[in-house]
Amino acid sequence: MSEQRIGEPITVLAVKVKGREVRVSFSNGEKIVFSVDSFTDFHLYAGKEVSDEEMARIQHLSDQDQAYDYAIRRLSQDSYSVAEMRRKMLAKGFDPKIVTGVIDRLTGMDLLDDKRFALTYAEDVGDLRCLGYHRIVYDLRVKGIGEDLIATLSFPLENEKKKAERQAAVLDRRYYRTPYARRILKINRALLERGFDESVAHEASNKVAKAPDPELERSELEKAFALANAKYTKKYTGYELSRHIYAFLVRKGFDYDEVKSIMEEHGL
């Protein structure tokens, strides 16, 4: 590639159309990509000379095209708040002024709308992912949704209960081999982490968790006892051995009376 001399006119070397893009090479080494629509704003062809001023406008329009195309690709894959889209575009390296222009263009086309985004996230996403009120509000704040919009959202108690119960049922199946008391604690904790109120989480975990299967509980207790016994007999005897095994089984969530019973059976 020949080096462009100062003051020497910039010449179009080649124009190539690829899909919905037009790629133009210039004698100064620049290779600029346009959308087909933007390309028509300039009468460019191989051999044409362009001024520095025109070159600057060409580059600016190309940068706008690339920023807009990036935003459209993101929106075709997922929904975004205005703040999220701005952060992603800036992180991609687009000029802040161009980003502002693209954001304005997208909001004007109704492709970006914080009110719609907040409502969709609170109702559809929250329901699909079984998220409680606190988690939804937290997520929306992180995504840049203002308090004024958050205040317009409603979270009916009955809907919160239904979501919590659906998630509790999933968790109950996941932890079915866990001792009953500990299973309820794990379900309750998981629901709290998903943003449900303490009262809602407590009610759902107790309502949904299936009653313990005595045979399964006993089988799991015996396995846990064998594990604890093998672990602690290497270090302890007598009272210390008994104390460590008892603490281990209680931490696992087994019923106190059942723990006491199996230890007595083994002479501890």
Q: Which structural class matches the secondary elements?
A: alpha+beta
- By CATH, the topology of the largest domain is Arc Repressor Mutant, subunit A
**CATH C-level of the largest domain:** Mainly Alpha
Number of helices: 13
Q: Report the end-to-end length measured between terminal Cα atoms.
A: 87 Å
Assembly classification: single chain
**Average residue-wise pLDDT:** 86
> CATH superfamily of the largest domain, called what?
Winged helix-like DNA-binding domain superfamily/Winged helix DNA-binding domain
Name the beta content range.
5-15%
Q: What's the architecture of the largest domain, going by CATH?
A: Orthogonal Bundle
Count every beta strand, where a strand is a DSSP E run of 2 or more residues. Answer: 4
Attribute tags:
single chain; four-stranded antiparallel β-sheet; 13 helices; Arc Repressor Mutant, subunit A; 63% helix; alpha+beta
How would you briefly describe this protein structure?
The protein has 268 residues and is α+β, with helices and mostly antiparallel strands.
Can you describe what's shown?
The protein is 63% helix and 8% strand. It is of the alpha+beta class and 268 residues long. It folds into 3 domains: 10-108, Orthogonal Bundle (Arc Repressor Mutant, subunit A); 157-208, Arc Repressor Mutant, subunit A; 216-265. It has a 4-stranded antiparallel beta sheet. Helix 5 packs across helix 6, helix 9 runs antiparallel to helix 10 and helix 12 packs antiparallel against helix 13 (256-265). The longest helix has 26 residues, at 52-77. The radius of gyration is 32 Å and the shape is elongated.
